[in-house]
Amino acid sequence: MVQQSHFSSKIHRSWTTRLDSKKSRMAGISSYMNGKFIPTDKIVDPLQTLILPGDKVMLESVQKQADFLSRSLAQVDPKIVHDLHIIVMAIGRPDHLSIFEDGIAKKIDFSFAGPQSHRVSQLIEKGVLEVGAIHTYVELSARLFCDLTPNVCLVCAEYADRDGNLYTGANTEDTPSIIEATAFSNGIVVVQVNEIVDKLPRVDIPGGWVDVIVEADRPFAMEPIQTRDPKDITELQILTAMMIIKGIYAPHQVTKLNHGVGFSTAAVELLLPTYGAQLGLKGKICKNWILNPQPTLIPAIESGWVESVHSFGNEDGMQEYIKARPDIFFTGADGSLRSNRVFCQLAGHYAIDCFSGSTLQIDAEGNTSTVTIGRIAGFGGAPNLGSDAHGRRHSSPAWLSTITSDGPNVHGRKLVLQVVETFKAGGVPTFVPQLDAVQVGKDAGLPVAPIMVYGEDCTHIATEQGIAYLYKSDSLEERKEIVAAVAGVTSVGLSVSRNRVNELRRLGKVAYPEDLGVNRGEAKRSLLSARSMKDLVAWSDGLYQPPARFRNW
Amino acid sequence: MVQQSHFSSKIHRSWTTRLDSKKSRMAGISSYMNGKFIPTDKIVDPLQTLILPGDKVMLESVQKQADFLSRSLAQVDPKIVHDLHIIVMAIGRPDHLSIFEDGIAKKIDFSFAGPQSHRVSQLIEKGVLEVGAIHTYVELSARLFCDLTPNVCLVCAEYADRDGNLYTGANTEDTPSIIEATAFSNGIVVVQVNEIVDKLPRVDIPGGWVDVIVEADRPFAMEPIQTRDPKDITELQILTAMMIIKGIYAPHQVTKLNHGVGFSTAAVELLLPTYGAQLGLKGKICKNWILNPQPTLIPAIESGWVESVHSFGNEDGMQEYIKARPDIFFTGADGSLRSNRVFCQLAGHYAIDCFSGSTLQIDAEGNTSTVTIGRIAGFGGAPNLGSDAHGRRHSSPAWLSTITSDGPNVHGRKLVLQVVETFKAGGVPTFVPQLDAVQVGKDAGLPVAPIMVYGEDCTHIATEQGIAYLYKSDSLEERKEIVAAVAGVTSVGLSVSRNRVNELRRLGKVAYPEDLGVNRGEAKRSLLSARSMKDLVAWSDGLYQPPARFRNW
């Protein structure tokens, strides 16, 4: 028998407070509802009933933004709805912040601030914005199932049918994970849709998971954030890309990878059908991609390099091309992309061999950050992709190739490559003795500095000067020398002697173009398989339709 | 214009081979189909048509097992279907291996072998089984979206409706992620259901994602693998649990956590309402759980310690209790659990502060493994839960409490605790100079030794002797001394001098019960809030209904 003294700690409470609250909130808006539907011009009042002060409210926003709902939230009466705890992947819109200035919201947990990063810094300084934490995307998704479960989520889809089933189509992104965390914790799921239709092209979210649907005043906002015009790729970037292919991807046999957004990695993609093919690497590297459908990948796909692409989100203009290439992309029965940020980040953490991305600053020890003075930008997915997965247990040639010691308990690691030029526009050095992030973190009262990729996780740095093989360093001191050896004439670069650099090159811990047999004279734009958006369209047989801003024809 | 020479690399191929193959396979079974349905006694022939030699075939199996489909697969003609590449989370059934002996399958990628681990070792040795790799669960899920995308998946659900929508109910587990990877890559989704019904309690998977449904000959197999009977908890385990609460959870302020399956962590759960309450820790530790609905958590829930539980899978007997406690568990509109292994593992990697689990061996450097001679068991979820998440960027008091140095770039880490007794049953030492895994890995031709938790990730070890604070070590040598200090009279334990141990205790790098103020005399079974299954039933107000094997009344 249980001792009576133990039983005395049993408490008496309702165990259905979230469910009861949901029922009462939903009852409060019944006069607005026709089935699950609320008229477009009536949404503000119901939001004031559905959302209670202090609630955790998740707003959907990365590429796809529930902008009608966030604009509507900005119109609620702060006397009725206040002190909200906002959870948002990307602070992408002015209204995401105006709700703080108006007293509707108080605290925020987020992953990326992008264009709003300057204002975020200012609002933190003013005490208007209380930051819970800055996350990597998938980490914020994870917390939805643990200690940041939303009371209400405001998300978006392309279509709903009359039963409330949703079609998210190519831009599925975070919608399934946000809704799952909310719906299965008796939270309230509010969805804006572009259109209510009789029959969906496919069902992405079952209607039973959805509480309220409203047709938006205009289609949800979208950003083609991954598109890079080949015309802007420089010859220095081409040189760096050649070194990446010959000095990293080939010797490490990188078959599964992610590329961040940037011109240098776009150059790598565009060099595969030319330079990569000359080196005889087709079928040996760059086969399985974790990547949004970036147009600069088209020539590599069309020349048979690519076996598969799984995507975080969609990229505008790629719809028809994707539909015609279902062997490569993950698509639904309707032919359009099924993206999914959580699964894609998961694959980017655990399945791939290599992450290659750019950054704004690198310090002497190889730590990197995109946070610079006055801007708290967040990192999106980079820390997840750009870190070694200590839980990984499967091997691949690339993963094993990083082992530099003997011993019974050795293991491989993910290749994490940071690609930069030694100086940014305006002659600002990329390599710095200490990251701005350290000061920014102190000023904003963050408990640790907002570092994007830690030096301990960074295996390679590529600059126009050469490749730094950081994973080969046998001490922190040597790691610093290896970083300096590719840092050009920055103060960090000047801290290592030419003799020492030559020794590191002999040891294979640093490689300059001539060490790799990369001919600087070959690094011409003519080596790119596509040099313009028009070239990409031609490669795609006219299926890729660039957004207007990328067209000059 | 694109240079003509570049365009010459454009290849001409079909880009719809997977879709075409799917259409042709589905057409081949049309005579068996009534809508999406195939009669129970006709499934073997269609499987022979749907599955082609060399296919990647995913079998669902952890707690919930698509056993009707795996038994049916074992009946296909190896002359027709052979050389399959099987992907399975857990090798849980004899038929998972007989298909290799019969020549139907050739290669396997898996995460856990459990009761089949001995036979797995034998089949590898005989060359019958070719192992792709041994994974952690979530890592294998990740590869489904990258380089291990199934051609066909064989999964299970409780019910299907006439439109093919699925109800997975409490045992959702891996079904959504397996189906998503297969359905959106033009693979074929085959589902066994316990029953076909007119109306589902809720829709877990939309019918549009499903190709073939068959009613199984009997309900899918289930294992209550997480249930531990309190009657089997020993006083040594209680002593260890007291040290974990007072020496780890309290000082580190562990609020978000996962417990592995084991009696020592069950003891921690059962001590919260008694010992934990005496220490005044209620509301301060152990609030948000990533855990299957383990019955030993009931007293902590009933006494108000627990705010939330998200689960990998279900646990038999807990259905009515879960339904009555929706504030705590993630449940659907029908009141039953919504588990989801991928999301739960994700939260276990990125959201929690602490993983506590047991193991079979620990080496002198703190590496651990459950692989022992003659058995390749795999690790399930442990490597993912039991590793530091280098991509994590949010702070918590627990995470920050592990920082032991100054400097601008420091960061916290996850607490990874391994709980063991210094000797196992039969006087076999748990602490060993070198893990058996090293030899097993060599014998099986694995590229690296199958280590479960690496010493570099393990922050604490708890034994009946005391707590080792490995994260405080300032060198590998010191880490070895700290491990030895809690290793009792094993050869590892005897390698450190008593003087050195006393110094480590003074430095706070090791703590014995008396250092923590834990009274050995208090470590009695009477301190457990429940000492039997009957006690757990009483705590649950009769809602918990233990499976027959756990009942003696």
Give the overall shape of chain A, derived from the CA principal axes: globular
CATH superfamily of the largest domain in chain A: Glutaconate Coenzyme A-transferase
Quote the distance from N terminus to C terminus of chain A: 83 Å
Q: Level of helix content of chain A?
A: 25-40%
Regarding quaternary structure, what we see is: homodimer
Please tally the helical runs of chain A, counting DSSP H or I stretches of 4 or more residues: 20
Structural class of chain A: alpha/beta
Outline the secondary-structure elements.
The structure is a homodimer of 553-residue chains.
Chain A: H1 4-7, H2 17-28, E1 37-38, H3 44-50, E2 56-59, E3 64-65, H4 67-73, E4 84-90, H5 94-101, E5 105-112, H6 117-126, E6 130-134, H7 137-143, E7 152-160, E8 166-167, H8 175-183, E9 188-196, E10 212-215, E11 221-222, H9 235-252, E12 256-259, H10 263-278, E13 288-290, H11 298-302, E14 308-310, H12 319-323, H13 341-350, E15 354-358, E16 361-363, E17 368-369, H14 382-385, H15 397-400, E18 415-419, E19 423-424, E20 428-429, E21 431-432, H16 436-443, E22 460-462, E23 467-469, H17 476-485, H18 498-506, E24 510-511, H19 513-516, H20 533-539
Helix pairs in contact in A: 9-10
